[in-house]
From TrEMBL:
<dbReference type="InterPro" id="IPR054856">
    <property type="entry name" value="BHydaspDhtse"/>
</dbReference>
<dbReference type="InterPro" id="IPR000634">
    <property type="entry name" value="Ser/Thr_deHydtase_PyrdxlP-BS"/>
</dbReference>
<dbReference type="GO" id="GO:0070179">
    <property type="term" value="P:D-serine biosynthetic process"/>
</dbReference>
<dbReference type="GO" id="GO:0003941">
    <property type="term" value="F:L-serine ammonia-lyase activity"/>
</dbReference>
<comment type="similarity">
    <text>Belongs to the serine/threonine dehydratase family.</text>
</comment>
<dbReference type="InterPro" id="IPR001926">
    <property type="entry name" value="TrpB-like_PALP"/>
</dbReference>
<dbReference type="InterPro" id="IPR036052">
    <property type="entry name" value="TrpB-like_PALP_sf"/>
</dbReference>
<dbReference type="GO" id="GO:0005524">
    <property type="term" value="F:ATP binding"/>
</dbReference>
<dbReference type="GO" id="GO:0030378">
    <property type="term" value="F:serine racemase activity"/>
</dbReference>
<keyword id="KW-0460">Magnesium</keyword>
<feature type="domain" description="Tryptophan synthase beta chain-like PALP">
    <location>
        <begin position="21"/>
        <end position="309"/>
    </location>
</feature>
<dbReference type="GO" id="GO:0000287">
    <property type="term" value="F:magnesium ion binding"/>
</dbReference>
<keyword id="KW-0663">Pyridoxal phosphate</keyword>
<dbReference type="Pfam" id="PF00291">
    <property type="entry name" value="PALP"/>
</dbReference>
<dbReference type="GO" id="GO:0030170">
    <property type="term" value="F:pyridoxal phosphate binding"/>
</dbReference>
<dbReference type="GO" id="GO:0018114">
    <property type="term" value="F:threonine racemase activity"/>
</dbReference>
<keyword id="KW-0456">Lyase</keyword>
């Protein structure tokens, strides 16, 4: 179940979201890496949402949704379904406001992300993997609790909050030729597109996606929304497909969807850890992996790269499981 759809956020909505969430989020740094510049042939400026509150950019959209609720709507709390980062972000924002929070999570969600949701005081409701199972379980939770549903991405409040990420990137990094961000459900990419269309329309947007979960790539090529339920990729945050609001934006504004294989994602994650000395999760590494896989697209350009999150299970790092032959 999702909240009733509302119009796409306006530039004023994005500015208002930034003012609303400012006390509740970090203004994350923009970092560079000469080694990665040489490897890609581009000047890369990394917006480090891996050090954001709750460990991911999702804190922006969740905080905007939670702190934008009036008292009557907030009284019953909030609820969502999530593979991890949105659930943790909503739990964080709800805790800041003192609201109950209920998060439906697939049983396959990484333990670190499940622990984060519980650590913020939210309740976790298990479900089978896949969007159909998640949405059915959420509908039951909302019917039982009366909580306000906050969709992980197909919600104008969430999209406006995510848009604040690129607003800060522009302020700190200056003019950019392009921005690359990972895409799953498309909330971050949609927010990025809307903010850039208003504030830097000459800047192109590229989405980055695992080859194993390439529904956004196929959708853009086909000119229609194509969805996939529970694809198998190490980038657990990108296993969801777009819905009507996010597809509406992506179909109009994204220049292309760049792809990366599972091995390329793992290699890019290792590069970021070793060369930049920061912790990112596989979904974050998809953006760099896609750039490395198609360097000719962005060579010689100033490119913003959004590192979306840093929530990893340290007992099951991808290069460790690859060596031992464990299944993901």
């Amino acid at each position: 179940m999702t909240a009733p759809l509302s119009p796409l956020p306006t530039p004023d909505d994005i500015v208002a979201a930034h003012d609303r969430i400012r006390p509740h989020i970090h203004r994350t740094p923009v970092l560079t890496c000469d080694t990665l510049d040489r490897k890609t042939g581009a000047r890369l400026l990394f917006k480090c949402e891996n050090v954001q509150k709750s460990g991911a950019f999702k804190a922006r959209g969740a905080s905007n949704a939670v702190f934008g609720l009036d008292a009557d709507r907030a009284a019953q709390g909030v609820a969502t379904h999530s593979s991890g980062n949105h659930g943790g972000a909503l739990a964080y924002a709800a805790a800041r406001r003192g609201l109950p929070c209920h998060v439906v999570m697939p049983r396959t969600a990484p333990r670190a992300k499940r622990d984060a949701v519980l650590g913020y005081g939210a309740s976790v409701i298990d479900c089978d993997p896949g969007v159909v199972a998640r949405e059915a379980a959420l509908a039951e939770v909302v019917a039982r609790t009366g909580a306000e549903p906050v969709h992980p991405f197909n919600d104008a409040r969430v999209i406006a909050g995510q848009a604040t990420c690129v607003l800060e990137l522009l302020e700190d990094a200056g003019p950019l030729d392009a921005v690359v961000a990972p895409i799953g459900g498309g909330g971050l990419v949609s927010g990025t597109c809307l903010a850039l269309a208003a504030m830097a329309p000459e800047t192109r947007v590229y989405a980055a996606e695992p080859r194993n979960a390439d529904d956004a790539h196929r959708s853009l090529k086909a000119g229609r929304l194509i969805t996939e339920d529970a694809p198998d990729t190490i980038a657990d945050g990108l296993r969801t497909s777009m819905k009507d609001l996010t597809w509406q934006v992506v179909s109009r504004h994204v220049s292309d969807v760049l792809l990366a294989s599972e091995d390329e994602i793992i290699a890019a994650m290792m590069l970021i850890w070793t060369r930049m000395k920061i912790v990112v999760e596989p979904s974050s590494a998809v953006a760099l992996a896609a750039i490395l896989n198609a360097p000719e697209v962005l060579a010689g350009q100033r490119v913003g790269v959004i590192l979306t999150g840093g929530n990893v299970d340290l007992d099951r790092l991808p290069w460790m499981t690859a060596r031992t032959g464990e299944t993901r």
